[in-house]
Q: What sequence folds into this?
């Protein structure tokens, strides 16, 4: 759980840096918890970036799905 939190924190930090410089970002992860999806949406909104959430069903994953978040 701690490793996952650290990975997502780093991903959001890098996303903020990209958005601040005017670049786009695509986040690829399970985003199993709604709070992480909400956090990504808030990150986009705080940088006035468009936000798209795509849920992909994956039969080869232990989780069964993954999300791509596009800013």
A:
């Amino acid at each position: 759980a701690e490793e996952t939190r650290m990975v997502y924190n780093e991903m959001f930090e890098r996303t903020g840096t990209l958005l601040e410089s005017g670049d786009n970002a695509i986040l690829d992860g399970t985003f199993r918890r709604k709070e992480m999806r909400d956090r990504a949406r808030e990150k986009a909104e705080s940088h006035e970036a468009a936000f798209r959430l795509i849920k992909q069903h994956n039969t080869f994953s232990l989780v069964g799905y993954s999300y791509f978040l596009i800013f």
Notes: The chain has a mean pLDDT of 86. DSSP finds two helices and three strands in the chain. Strands lie at 26-29, 52-57, 65-70.
